[in-house]
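Thread title: Can someone regenerate the structure for this chain?

I was given the following input by a collaborator and told the matching structure tokens would be attached. They weren't. Posting the sequence so someone can regenerate them.
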Amino acid sequence: MSTHSNGLWAAIRKRRSLLLLTLAAVTAIAALATCREESKTQASVPVERKKIKVVLETVAPRPLSDLLILPGETEALHDVRLSAERNGRVEQVPVKEGDFVRAGQVIAHIDMQALSAGLDKAQAACRLAEDLHQRRSALHAQGMIAREDLQVAETDLAKARSDLLQARSNHRQGSIMAPVNGMINKVHVDPGEVVSEGNAVADLVNVDTIRVNVNVPELDVRFLRQGQEAPVHVDAYPGENWKGVVDFVAYKADPATKTFQARLVVANADRRIRPGMLARVVFHRRTLDGALTAPLSAILDKSGERLVFVEENGVARARTVVPGVIDGDRVEIRQGLKAGDKLIVVGQTEVEDGAEVQAQ
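Best answer:
Regenerated them for you:
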């Protein structure tokens, strides 16, 4: 190929490249113009803001119960540890742990054989002294014996009667008996074991009536009185409650806690409540008439500040409130709300001050 032909082809390729660049530039300019037009069109159409759906509650005065809930611990009305009253060998333990016993029922026999023998001996000696005194009285009346002989018989009879009383007392001490009705919680001795005076024999608890002890703060003790009824909830039985009656309110505060002990009694015929279970006592302090209240869930915590939202002309407005007495799921609002306010009770976590809302 000649030099002239080569130059011609180079010129053609150069013009083609310029033409392609020109077409690309025109296309880009047209696209940019189209985007600008679309932007102008979109800017001219107003954007509709989405309203937040909420549920409202009209604030109105209502009575509110001022309740005091205090934790307490249950204990048996009678919790008795029976101990040996004398030294001796345990001969018999006719009860076992878990048995129900009645007052006067024998729990254990200690050294009863020796004590029974001593009682029999004292009874025989007393009968002999009585017979001797009776005969000498008759003889003295007939003038057959001196007054001194009769006095000796009287002294012997008095001593025999005293020995009999002591033998009977010892005999009773050998039988450990239940002082009250109750359940045998623990037996500490076995037959054949030798015990000393004061050694534990058995633990007896009466759970037909339960006591609940609570510590009442100083500012609340004035609301309690003897005979006052209060519901008692036991943690072991969720959803159930028992009726408690205030049996005692201390007149002196505990120096360590500055609280006053109060005791309630609870009927426990079915023995479901056991000593040592945790309980909660609900005391009714007073009733607040005409209180402004809100659901607890409507109050939000924003950096330590208590807030609620109310609806005003379709807009959510934040209000700072001061809560007071709590009754169940409602709380007294001492400041921040007035009667007639439309409180947002559902959706309050989704709104902010000034947000548009729609009541459902």
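Residues 252 and 293 are 36 Å apart (CA to CA).
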